[in-house]
Amino acid sequence: MKDAIEYVKRCDFCRRMSSVPRQAVAEMSPVVSGITFAMWGIDLVGQFLKIPVKYKDVVVAVDYLSEWVEAAH
Q1: pLDDT tens-digit profile, the chain (73 residues)
Q2: Which of 47, 55, 62, 65 could form a disulfide with 73 if both were Cys (CB 3.0 to 4.6 A apart)?
Q3: HSE-up of 18 (CA within 13 Å, CB side)?
Q4: Are strands 57-63 and 40-46 parallel, antiparallel or unpaired?
Q5: Cα–Cα distance between 47 and 57 in angstroms, integer?
Q6: What Å distances lie between residue 33 and 14, 27, 30, 58, 71, CA to CA?
Q7: Residue 72's closest CA among 59, 62, 61?
Q8: For residue 72, how many C-alpha atoms fall within 13 Å in the half-sphere facing its CB?
Q9: Which domain of life is it from (predicted)?
Q10: Is the dihedral of CA 59, 67, 33, 30 positive or negative?
Q11: β-strand 40-46 against 69-72: which pairing, if any?
């Protein structure tokens, strides 16, 4: 299986016919915060259509250093 995957990766025809868009890979580096509550990650999650309550969206905030989580609807 590994040989087949490597072949497809190098096959010019396979790459041109692939429907998967290719992007340049950027090097990742960690995000560092030295002070609690100085840097937050915010996620918006929503469109929960099949739940029986009136709230359909959630906001989640996570402190980078302490990993403290807050969520609100």
Answers
A1: 788 888 877 787 877 777 777 677 788 888 888 999 999 999 998 877 777 777 778 899 999 999 999 988 7
A2: 55
A3: 12
A4: antiparallel
A5: 6
A6: 43, 19, 10, 25, 21
A7: 59
A8: 3
A9: Eukaryota
A10: negative
A11: unpaired
d(CA 68, CA 2): 41
Q: Which two tokens stand for residue 57?
A: 């969206």
The pTM assigned to this predicted structure is 0.53
- Type of residue found at 64: Y
